[in-house]
UniProtKB/TrEMBL annotation:
GO molecular function, one term: metal ion binding
Gene3D superfamilies assigned: 2.60.120.200
InterPro entries assigned: ConA-like_dom_sf, Intracellular_Lectin-GPT, Lectin_leg
Annotated membrane topology: Single-pass type I membrane protein
L-type lectin-like domain segment(s): 66-291
Keyword Nuclease: no
Record's protein name: VIP36-like protein isoform X2
Pfam families documented for this protein: Lectin_leg-like
Length: 365
């Protein structure tokens, strides 16, 4: 019995030594722990990058990357919409927030509404993706009037141009659903067009904005059973507008204009209006992406900041800047010196009159 116990003890020691010999040494264990920690950190960073939705995404020819800018974007559940000072987006007019969309105007006559971003955009190159829906009870040519997407100097200014002010300063992209010009036949509606304004031009409703448009295309977007999208891209002073309205998840070219000069610091917004005819004009999402683009030194010199919107090879009327209002001190000084000059002129006049009278008396004597 004692021999069996001792044998078992010796066999246990032999097995332990063999296991110790097969066990990895201390430096191998330390290297494996470092490798695992390093791989774990990389995996965590990758998961955070993918989960955040703000990582760079290649666009185009591999030299352009886009970054989602949440302060200029809007999507469900529309938490940043309201009238408070902390809201990123403001509603105006008849616009209202629903669970699945923001309705700019209902399918009712004489309504107008708008949605405006409160944060000015200082991006140099950007892309705005708009998910929208236009639908209603009206039959062919008995619906209207459409919606507009804006990048303008002024915000929250109601007016006749698809619910926004006329003679705006900036860029307007219009989805016009009703033809006002009866004689035209070569254009099929709904129709997408774009306009750049420095504040001197009026939008011509009677001619559907044709005198001032940069370009356009037909876009059948009413009462569709699939999603409709519009993208506005501004890169290196090159304006491109594309649409995805066929349910194929493919972008189709609509407008392409080089030499468009837009200042930074303007506001994004969207608006709509109805008149005698109406439609539901809904916005589901607005997503703005910052585009990082490589520029040569020559392009850096050419693409300097501008202060008024313009388009190369397109003459826009010059805007005369209004005179700034006078301050209280300036007004006081003007009135004071005017009174002093008047009193001085009166005194000089009296002196000259008295001398004239004395000379007249000397003649008679």
């Amino acid at each position: 019995m004692a021999w069996a116990t001792g044998r078992a003890f010796n066999e246990g020691k032999a097995v332990g030594k063999m296991a110790a010999a097969l066990r990895p040494s201390g430096w191998w264990q330390r290297w494996r722990r470092r490798l695992s920690a390093r791989n774990g950190s990389r995996m965590l960073f990758l998961l955070l990058l993918l989960g955040s939705g703000q990582g760079p995404r290649p666009v185009g020819a591999g030299q352009t990357f886009e970054y989602l800018k949440r302060e200029h974007s809007l999507s469900k559940p529309y938490q940043g919409v309201g009238t408070g000072s902390s809201s990123l987006w403001n509603l105006m007019g008849n616009a209202m927030v629903m669970t699945q969309y923001i309705r700019l105007t209902p399918d009712m006559q004489s309504k107008q509404g708008a949605l405006w971003n409160r944060v000015p955009c200082f991006l140099r190159d950007w892309e705005l993706q708009v998910h929208f829906k236009i639908h209603g009870q009206g039959k062919k040519n008995l619906h209207g009037d459409g919606l507009a997407i804006w990048y303008t100097k002024d915000r929250m200014q109601p007016g006749p141009v698809f619910g926004n002010m006329d003679k705006f300063v900036g860029l307007g992209v219009f989805v016009d659903t009703y033809p006002n010009e009866e004689k035209q036949q070569e254009r099929v509606f709904p129709y997408i067009s774009a306009m750049v304004n420095n504040g001197s031009l009026s939008y011509d409703h009677e001619r559907d904005g044709r005198p001032t448009e940069l370009g356009g295309c037909t876009a059948i977007v009413r009462n569709l059973h699939y999603d409709t999208f519009l993208v506005i891209r501004y890169v290196k002073r090159h304006l491109t507008i594309m649409m995805d309205i066929d349910g194929k998840h493919e972008w189709r070219d609509c407008i392409e204009v080089p030499g468009v000069r837009l200042p930074r610091g303007y506001y994004f917004g969207t608006s709509s209006i109805t008149g005698d005819l109406s439609d539901n004009h809904d916005v589901i999402s607005l997503k703005l992406f910052e585009l990082t683009v490589e520029r040569t030194p020559e392009e850096e010199k050419l693409h300097r900041d501008v202060f008024l919107p313009s388009v190369d090879n397109m003459k826009l009327p010059e805007v005369t800047a209004p005179l700034p209002p006078l301050s209280g001190l300036a007004l006081f000084l003007i009135v004071f010196f005017s009174l002093v000059f008047s009193v001085f002129a009166i005194v000089i006049g009296i002196i000259l009159y008295n001398k004239w009278q004395e000379q007249s008396r000397k003649r008679f004597y």
